[in-house]
Amino acid sequence: MILKMIKPDSYTRILFKVSVLFILFLVPACSGAIFLKNGSEISRDEINDVIMNDLHTWRDSPFPVQFFYTTSCGSCRDAREYFMSFIRKNPSVPVEFRNLASNEENRGLLNEYKKQFSGIKISYPIVFIGDFGITGSSDIIHVTGQIVREYLLQLNT
After folding, report:
1. What is the pTM of this model?
2. Which structural domains are found in the chain, ordered by start?
């Protein structure tokens, strides 16, 4: 009955709009990655093994955590909210917030990290913890705590 009330042109428009919205919900807002200084991308399952087996990663302190973002980026906002909660729960882990929009020094530091993590497409939001780089708010939110815990375990043994 409702379909009879809708004009054919408007029905097509509605169907098109619903289809577009459905497709947008299937596509992630931003892509994320977990990678190492040597340029290799790793999965979440490999993090513990990498930290435990790579002596270089835990000889030197991986802290402070370096978080690069811009205030105009929605994905950055999600990651920033995560870090605000993270520092309340982990006051002993230093996190440095690096707003790229307002500070030339922060952009210069990000360029230095880009040189260290050669071969990786670096976008923001991005976090550097020791030999790890994490891009995308989802991976940042789901992986940062795991990497920090593993580093702390290795540093304290």
Report:
1. 0.75
2. 33-155 (3.40.30.10)
